[in-house]
Amino acid sequence: MPAMLMASLLGTYLDLYFTGKGMYAFPTRPFSDIFTINILFTLAVLPIFMIPLLKIMESLKGWFRGMIVLAISVAMAAAEKMAESIGMFVHAENWHHLYTFIGYCLFIGLIAAFHGWMNGNHFKKPISTE
């Protein structure tokens, strides 16, 4: 639950920051008279998406975790491009989808690290049997 809350808050604040800077916009969004961001995505989709992702990452070790993060980040950049083509998302002229890829790598890594920290899984030393 804390990782879901963190994902929701971080996603919301990042969207508020980037829409405020004019880097992107959400032409089609719920409660468009009130919010400049797509709150459905930041308050529901993003945290719900993180549940299975964190469960999968818990079961993987080493570089497999990194591969999952890279794959999800590439998928999000592609999904963003599709959302643009159907009018759900608009970027500034100087936006590159590489920013999305790097952003999701950092976002997922941060949420996964927070999740591990909250669950006490950070920097565990192997138990010695000697």
Question: Please, could you describe this protein's structure?
Answer:
This protein has 130 residues and is mainly α. The protein has one domain (2-118). Helix content is 65%, strand content 3%. The protein has helices spanning 2-20, 39-59, 63-85, 97-118; strands at 24-25, 90-91. The longest helix is centred in the middle third of the chain and has 23 residues, at 63-85. The protein is globular, with a radius of gyration of 17 Å. The model is unreliable at 123-128 (pLDDT under 50).
Give start-end ranges of low-pLDDT stretches: 123-128
Give the integer mean of the pLDDT values: 85
In percent terms, what proportion of residues is strand? under 5%
What is the helix content? 55-70%
Strand order of the largest sheet: 1-2
Shape: globular
Question: Helix and strand succession?
Answer: HEHHEH
Largest sheet: 2 strands, antiparallel
Work out the radius of gyration.
17 Å
Number of domains: 1
Number of strands: 2
What structural category characterises the helix and strand content?
mainly alpha
Distance between the termini: 37 Å
| DSSP helical segment count | 4
